[in-house]
Amino acid sequence: MGNEKNEKENNKENGYGEVRIASEVIAAYVSEAASSVEGVFGLGGNLSAAALTSKVLGRENKIRGVRVSEDENDGYSIDIFLVVEFGTKIPEVAWNVQKRVTEGLARTADIKIKGVNIHVQGVHSGDSQTA
Fold it and tell me: Residue 131: which pLDDT band, with cuts at 50, 70 and 90?
């Protein structure tokens, strides 16, 4: 599985030197791109083992609702934890998020994406949210 250390960076050689893109930067871009898709109310937290471990060790996940994992051979795997608006077509919202994130990262960061996994954690309806 991919390396989930926040210190892991994407290295690119361009003839002038290295360009490094930190995983946090990728996660921030993913968060903004996913949040801008119609039907997305917001990003949720994830209760994965990595998130729980980081809380126990005193490291706070700065980009809530996004996990970026890097595998040196296969590229990046991205997990996005969403809360969608009530009445939206959930698969359509998920596909639109996948498309926006994948195309945006290819265009802006020129990185290889292994997959963008969507985890719908809740539905927002007016003033209430259900899981």
Answer: low
